[in-house]
Amino acid sequence: MTTFSWRFVTLAGLFVTALVVSNIIAVKLAEVGGRVFDAGNILFPLAYVLGDVITEVYGFRVARRVILLGFVCNLLAVGAIQLALRLPAAGFWLENEEAYETILGTTWRIFVASLCAYLVGELTNSFVLSRMKVATRGRFLWSRTIGSSIVGQALDSTLFVTIAFAGTVPRADLLDTIVTTWAIKVVWEALATPITYVVANGLKRREGIDVFDLPRPAPART
To answer: Does the predicted TM-score (pTM) go above 0.70?
Structure first.
């Protein structure tokens, strides 16, 4: 596919927005029913839903480009935030500086954890979905979206929590956080399955595209 429709551009834009915004709001830790999780979990699963739709309709190769685009945009956002933090504050604004740094500042450990978890989780999710689509011959979309999310989100949650917090919190709390964030993301995406069906099937009809990532034939020997 050499040209992209406005529908695809919209999906890619929403994907990147969900990624960048969720990383910004993740600084807040919330607690519901005794379970602690970062606020990014209320939006980040949307990136997986959109990634599922892009993979289902346009194929893994296109989805991989969008995932890498999200990675670059997140780097740009973090770089801009770090630059803003280092700009000298105006005299009348100094009282806000500490709050600004608390909300937007991040440690390099959390930054690396976020990027590693995102890349591994999203690429795995997309790859598993594309392989399952071939295996199921395009049927049972629900099994692909939920199945790929179980694997991708498990890797995402495990990598992020481990890299970001291992050695700073007890192992039991570390495991509890991993399981909690994984469960929230998987349930979120499972509940969004009807929307995924509507969007993916609607795009297939309007775009006239339904890519199956079949193995490429081996080159003929001469």
So the answer is: yes
How many angstroms separate the CA atoms of 182 and 155, rounded?
Answer: 9
Walk along the chain (222 residues) and give the pLDDT tens digit of each residue.
456 799 999 999 999 999 999 888 877 878 888 777 778 888 888 999 999 999 999 999 999 999 999 999 999 998 898 899 999 999 999 999 998 888 887 767 888 888 899 999 999 999 999 999 999 999 999 999 999 999 999 999 999 889 888 888 788 888 988 999 899 889 998 999 999 999 999 999 999 999 999 876 655 555
Please give the C-alpha separations between residue 28 and each of 25, 31, 130, 137, 154, in angstroms, as whole numbers.
Answer: 6, 10, 34, 42, 21
Contact 212, 138 (CB under 8 A): yes
Residue 199 to residues 86, 101, 202, 207: CA-CA distances in angstroms?
42, 39, 5, 12
The answer to the question of residue 220 being in a domain is: no
221 domain residue, yes or no: no
Q: Domain for residue 216, yes or no?
A: no
Q: 175 is in which domain, residue-wise? A: 6-207
- Within a domain: 88: yes
Determine if residue 139 is left, alpha or beta; phi over 0 gives left, psi from -120 to 50 gives alpha, anything else beta.
beta
What one-letter code names the amino acid at 22?
S
Cβ neighbours around 153 below 10 Å, total? 26
Between the CA atoms of 75, 78, 81 and 87, what dihedral angle is there, to the nearest 10 degrees? Answer: -70
Q: Which residues contact 147 (CB under 8 A, 6 or more apart)?
A: 128, 129, 132
